[in-house]
Amino acid sequence: MGVGMNSGLVSTHWDDRYETGVRSSWFSSAIVGSELNRRITGDDKFWLWWVFNEYLPEKPKKILSIGCGDGAHELIIARNHWAASVDAFDLSPAGIKQAADAAEAEGLNANFFVRDFNDFIQNPGGDYDAVIFIGSLHHVTDLEGMLGAVRKSLVPNGYLIINEYCGPCYNIYDQKRVDLLNNVIKSISAPYKRNPDARWTNHSIELVFSVDPSESVRSSLILPFLEFYFDKELLRPFGGALLHPIFDLLNGEKINDGSEDSNTVVRMLIELENQLQANGAIPSDFMLGVYRNSKA
């Protein structure tokens, strides 16, 4: 989080999410998950497995994960021995407790601890072979400070691995996108919608700040800022401009019930996003990137 941001509010918000198991709606669909992996890897391989087993020339010894949440991805790395050791921190005590308890129970070489973004920015270090952000960099206000601190924490030519939202700040879309979302949701049968009158309305800044003021705070600057600090080695946009918000308007239980009709609706939404993005009608709001620390 950035200087002046209400860290207590953000911490409480994420504690609640980890304790209740709330996740982003589009990740609840196995079909969408498979499609996102395909967009990143070219195949139906789990993107994290692909990065460590097919993309990186050798497995890193020391990894630092910044904003690890409940440690789901970091535990996978540790379980599969994709790194000799994993350090990971987050602001949420509830998320860190879940991760640390799992690591201890399984005897994994993974160290989870509570830490604020600002503390890391002010006190970086560690000689890590790789630093990873998985859906956390878009919560950072001081991108310049964070990326500079990451650079100091990496060994020369070390890797920065990012799976991230890089779309409009605060998820506030332009009118063209809002109209598209509402035209699409209007065409979907009522049983598949969260409610019969479901429609997209941008949140007000006041509402954003009252829930989580760190949400997508400077997300649209992530891609250009990364290239100021690191050398880009790989960039794989994987969409989300339609799918990510539209799933918040859908009936999650119905759309994921496994029926052929429900699966057909999901596949049609995926194809619509593919076609719109291929024709330049919508951007990609999410990306997988691999960068190198060669500008230090």
UniProtKB/TrEMBL annotation:
Pfam entry (one): Methyltransf_23
Alphabetized InterPro entries for the sequence: SAM-dependent_MTases_sf
GO biological process: methylation
Gene3D superfamilies, alphabetized: Vaccinia Virus protein VP39
Keywords for this protein: Methyltransferase, Transferase
GO molecular function: methyltransferase activity
Protein name in the entry: Methyltransferase domain-containing protein
Annotated source species: Agrobacterium vitis (Rhizobium vitis)
